[in-house]
Amino acid sequence: MHAFQTIIEPFRIHSVEPIRMTTREEREQELGRAGYNLFSVPGPRVLVDLLTDSGTGAMSSEQWAGLQRGDESYAGAASWFRFRDAVKELFPFEHVIPTHQGRAAEKIIFSVLGAPGKAIPNNTHFDTTRANVEFSGAEALDLPVPEALVPSSRHPFKGNMDVDALRRVLAERDVPVVFMTLTNNSGGGQPVSMENLRAVREACDAAGVPLLLDACRFAENAWFVKLREDGYADTPLPEIVRETASLADGMTMSAKKDPLGNIGGWLALDDDGLAEQCRNLLILTEGFPTYGGMAGRDMEAVAQGLREAVDEDYLRYRIRSTEYLGEALDRAGIPVVLPVGGHAVYIDARAFLPQIPPLEYPGQALAVALYREGGIRCSEIGTVMFGLQPDGSEQPAAMDLVRLAIPRRTYTQSHVDYVIEVCRFVAEHAAELRGLRIVEQPPVLRHFTARFEPL
Ligand SMILES: Cc1ncc(COP(=O)(O)O)c(C=O)c1O
To answer: pTM for this one?
Structure first.
């Protein structure tokens, strides 16, 4: 049989949300009102929203059907058992503790394991993970492989951890837990290889320290393992996921990413004593252990989403459509993190706008320009997000990136073609762009609410 080359969306559109067109003048006014912070721009004022892939995906007809099956019993709802079984099918950890989203799971685990004087390594902590580690008084350490910090390096697993650096930290510091983020969101949506995860596991075993996964994008990570790592080409995706889980002692999860939910998450653990402590905190702030932070209907949507997340036709389309955007920007001479990650294309704003120094926020300047010119909303992952230090001082982040995150099953190829056209237009006028300064900011997670002024 002839194998056709075009990879199509493996779904038809079932209901649509209108997009309201806006003019450049309207967007310019909107930017002024929002203090040049795109988190403060109302959704209806955005044409193509690439701010995040978190909770922004389209649900399938089976997920919508699941909402109708939602059992809202306070204790022991049928939806809880379906949710728990779907989680354990892929991640066979002993205890599953449902939360309203990923950061709630992080808050609970770091409240129990973090404390002043302790250090918590990760390939790269995501912003909420870092903030929750630091809130506990512990130090959040990023230990990516050196290639992860070179946007143009084509290493196939730039999400990997530097295992020698990890061994040194384990020998020198008081480490209660090691984390691995799959895929490495802050580092460019880059995957972690099974080989690296195994080496990290060995280092943790030698030090007697547990290893937890921040597994939001586990399915995309598994797809990259299948494509790029020797020995996995014929392994079914669910088996790759289970092998990943078998190398860890637990996980935190935001069900708003690969599990295709609009809300939800969980903490899963093997250790009975640790799970007991975490459940006690869950009841204080989230809810009873058989729903935690989720409605029964949300647990149904996530249970079904987990089955769809490991479908190979879906993953082939998902990863290829992200790559399509990245390849087009690369061809246009726009510096992007290569190879292209799973859920997003990351533009290297420091290379794109060399006239703007890191402390004048080149990533924010580029994100603002993409909104002004084309109504595209995306996020800075750089000095605005990571530059403010716990002592109140400011330093350039390791990289200044702009992330174009692709919501799951939401936009079509013509939306992506429009994004490419806008990026090319902004690239032609890049030399005219100037930086920004911050005029108002909170003490933590400043990127969500800071206000800026153009310089
Ligand atoms: C790698 C990673 N960890 C944790 C989180 C936090 O999840 P949530 O937004 O559900 O709190 C995110 C969300 O963007 C993430 O990308």
So the answer is: 0.94
